[in-house]
């Protein structure tokens, strides 16, 4: 593999990684606020994507994208307020299982609505590669990288300095103590879902494109969203920085291993997806709580 | 000593005065139980006669048994041993392919590997292979917990997808797959071979024979699982699930118990895989990770079976299989036979989507309103039917002293 190819793969991989990072960050925000693992993240992605698909011909792409992001955020909020908040007696593991049920329903419904179309929704940038010093970079991935960097920076600034961020971190640290200090647990939880949904809504704008995977909005997108699971797990489920690192590792691993298939054809076409999971397995065997995750200690 | 844990696991401590009453009331309750079981067994045995020539219904029932065998394996792992696994479809695939390879006719094709073993041996071999692969994954499974293990196990599904497509000599490849050899038991083929015996005027042909085969396999699985749950091994699973440190202190070898649970669960899934191959009459690896017989959708479906049935409950897994696998096939049957969903008013709603709606909603409702799943509903019904021996029933107690050991409880997955 010559240098130009490597750079090309690496940059495109980073672009994908930025999208995975947005999704993984969503998982982590929800997990930190509520200790619930949101299996329905893939369906939040689909909700955002579906709204964009339905509206982009009437409203134009930019407005549709905005409405899509807001819809995904609201879907997250409704899921939390409508279902999870009403199941206080259930522990967080049961709630994770509940999100599986929600995911099945939303995914099937949207896949049914989209039908055989499997549309692509990245109109302004899809399939317009950038040539740069002999290196071909997908425009989708390049924009994803920039948008991802901006959003992630904004998130970390807010997480560090804003009242909301302080409240989030306080609740993640100790829910009871935070409540005693006057932090409204329900509001923190609700905003966590809102933010995670919005990030998923942004991510789908890049996922359901030709450039990203060739998989249009549908089960394919939903499956890509699942790759954010290894990203979040790799970094450690309760670490926001870990989500970013995990996302980038997953993106680059996927890009490099898919190129390797051309050199080592016996590995077969599906190897790149397996490669991501193999990397994750290796990391988990060495560090069972991910790279940056808090080790689980048990008092005896 | 591990009994202490199983009691702690859920049932209110047995109050001393309740003991004699429970002992006195048991025979009556057992009579109800035995009668119900007898009716159920009779129904299942006579099912081919009841459906007569409508073999399609029999196929639905067969599929439920596949879901039951796999679901029992998963409920032991997730509910009893507290290890979340999404790898079930991978073991189904391994089981199906192993059976086809072990029993396959070596002369059949130059491209396919076949060892030509007797089918019964191949069936056992497939189960053993799945158990061994489960054992190979045990070092990973032993180190991880909860969701970390769940996602780690997801990697096996992707591994299966990749290997299934790469190793065409074993799997037959995604385009055509390979036909699994007909199952035979001591020379009796499970096919349409003559002479076909008749039972009450219904010819016992391939589908009827497969039904009885599946019924026996499912019954063996059920009894083995119940046995495991009620014995020392089940107590050690629950001890590890509830508190690893406490389990260690009581002399449970946590690593070995966790590995054992994974092996046993994989073996069940392997058997379900062989049954799937026989049911479909085809072994074919999936084309992608989200649709197909061994895909992520199936991972979720199996998890739904376990949740709906009540985590850790063996009979619950059978009920869950009827809801998740049964409804899907039932709707498909309706679509094929009676043209359901064909009208435009359904707007592309089809059997698979509708059944997904039903089981998705069932999962949500179960978590919200009855975390114990079908098993808890069942226990309550039994309590309602025989109120005298259950003093705690009106207070919403889940279990009575002297009843079957506690299975599912509050902290299922982690």
Descriptive labels:
heterodimer; A: 300 residues; mainly alpha; two-stranded antiparallel ribbon; 11 helices; 2 strands; 72% helix; globular; B: 414 residues; ABC transporter involved in vitamin B12 uptake, BtuC; two-stranded antiparallel sheet; 67% helix; disordered N terminus; disordered C terminus
What would your notes on this structure say?
- The complex is a heterodimer of chains A (300) and B (414).
- Chain A has 300 residues and is mainly alpha-helical.
- Chain A has one domain (16-227).
- Chain A is 72% helix and 2% strand.
- Chain A is built from 11 helices and 2 strands.
- Chain A has a two-stranded antiparallel sheet with strand order 1-2.
- The model of chain A has no long low-confidence stretch (mean pLDDT 87).
- With 414 residues, chain B is mainly alpha-helical.
- Chain B has one domain (2-395): ABC transporter involved in vitamin B12 uptake, BtuC (Orthogonal Bundle).
- Chain B contains 16 helices and 4 strands.
- In chain B, the strands form 2 sheets. A two-stranded antiparallel sheet of chain B has the order 1-2. In chain B, strands 3-4 form a two-stranded antiparallel sheet.
- Chain B is globular.
């Amino acid at each position: 593999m010559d240098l130009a190819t490597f750079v090309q793969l690496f940059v495109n991989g980073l672009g994908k990684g930025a999208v995975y990072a947005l999704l993984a960050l969503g998982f982590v925000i929800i997990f930190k606020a509520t200790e619930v693992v949101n299996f329905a993240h893939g369906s939040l992605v689909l909700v955002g994507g579906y709204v964009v698909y339905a509206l982009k011909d009437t409203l134009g792409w930019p407005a549709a994208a905005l409405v899509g992001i807001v819809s995904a955020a609201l879907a997250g909020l409704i899921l939390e307020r409508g279902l999870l908040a009403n199941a206080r007696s259930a522990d967080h593991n049961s709630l994770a299982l509940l999100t599986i049920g929600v995911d099945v329903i939303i995914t099937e419904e949207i896949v049914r609505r989209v039908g055989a179309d499997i549309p692509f929704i990245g109109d302004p940038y899809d399939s317009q590669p950038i040539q740069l010093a002999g290196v071909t970079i997908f425009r989708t991935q390049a924009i994803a990288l920039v948008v991802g960097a901006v959003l992630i920076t904004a998130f970390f600034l807010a997480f560090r300095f804003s009242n909301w961020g302080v409240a989030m971190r306080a609740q993640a640290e100790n829910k009871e103590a935070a409540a005693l200090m006057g932090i409204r647990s329900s509001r923190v939880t609700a905003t966590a879902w809102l933010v995670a949904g919005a990030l998923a809504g942004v991510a789908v704008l890049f996922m359901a494109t030709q450039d990203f995977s060739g998989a249009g909005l549908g089960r394919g997108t939903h499956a890509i969203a699942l790759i954010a699971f290894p990203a979040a797990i790799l970094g450690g489920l309760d670490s926001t920085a870990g989500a970013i690192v995990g996302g980038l590792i997953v993106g680059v691993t996927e890009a490099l291993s898919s190129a390797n298939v051309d050199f080592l054809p016996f590995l077969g076409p599906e190897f790149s997806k397996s490669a991501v999971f193999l990397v994750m397995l290796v990391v988990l065997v060495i560090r069972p709580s991910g790279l940056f995750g808090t080790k689980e200690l048990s008092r005896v | 000593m591990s009994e202490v844990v199983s009691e702690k696991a859920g049932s209110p401590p047995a109050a001393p005065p309740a003991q004699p009453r429970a002992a006195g009331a048991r025979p009556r309750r057992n009579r109800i139980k035995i009668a119900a079981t007898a009716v159920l067994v009779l129904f299942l045995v006579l099912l081919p006669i009841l459906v007569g020539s409508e073999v399609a219904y029999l196929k639905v029932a067969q599929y439920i048994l596949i879901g039951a065998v796999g679901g029992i394996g998963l409920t032991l792992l997730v509910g009893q041993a507290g290890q979340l696994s999404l790898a079930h479809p991978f073991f189904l695939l391994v089981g199906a392919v192993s059976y086809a390879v072990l029993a396959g006719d070596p002369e059949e094709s130059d491209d396919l590997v076949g060892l030509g073993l007797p089918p019964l041996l191949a069936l056992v071999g497939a189960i053993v292979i799945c158990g061994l692969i489960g054992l190979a994954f045990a070092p990973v499974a032993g180190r991880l917990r909860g969701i970390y293990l769940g996602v780690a196990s997801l990697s096996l599904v992707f591994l299966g997808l990749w290997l299934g497509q790469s190793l065409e000599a074993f799997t037959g490849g995604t385009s055509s797959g390979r036909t699994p050899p007909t199952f035979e038991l001591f020379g009796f083929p499970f096919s349409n071979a003559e002479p076909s015996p008749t039972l009450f005027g219904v010819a016992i042909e391939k589908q009827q024979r497969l039904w009885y085969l599946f019924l026996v396999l499912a019954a063996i699985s059920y009894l083995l699982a119940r046995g495991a749950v009620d014995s020392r091994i089940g107590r050690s699973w629950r001890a590890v699930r509830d508190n690893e440190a406490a389990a260690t202190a009581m002399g449970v070898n946590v690593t070995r118990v966790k590995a054992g649970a994974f092996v046993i669960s994989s073996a069940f899934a392997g058997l379900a895989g062989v049954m799937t191959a026989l049911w479909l009459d085809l072994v074919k690896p999936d084309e992608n990770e989200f649709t197909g017989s061994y895909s992520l959708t199936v991972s979720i479906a199996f998890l739904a079976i376990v949740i709906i049935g009540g985590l850790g409950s063996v009979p619950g897994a059978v009920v869950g299989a009827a809801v998740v696998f049964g409804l899907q096939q039932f709707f498909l049957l309706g679509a094929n036979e009676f043209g359901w969903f064909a009208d435009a008013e359904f707007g592309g709603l089809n059997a698979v989507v509708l059944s997904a709606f039903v089981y998705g909603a069932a999962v949500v409702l179960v978590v919200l309103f009855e975390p114990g799943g079908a098993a808890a509903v069942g226990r309550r019904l039994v309590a309602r039917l025989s109120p005298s021996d259950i003093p705690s029933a009106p207070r919403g107690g889940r279990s009575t002293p002297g009843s079957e050991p506690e299975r599912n409880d509050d902290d299922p997955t982690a």
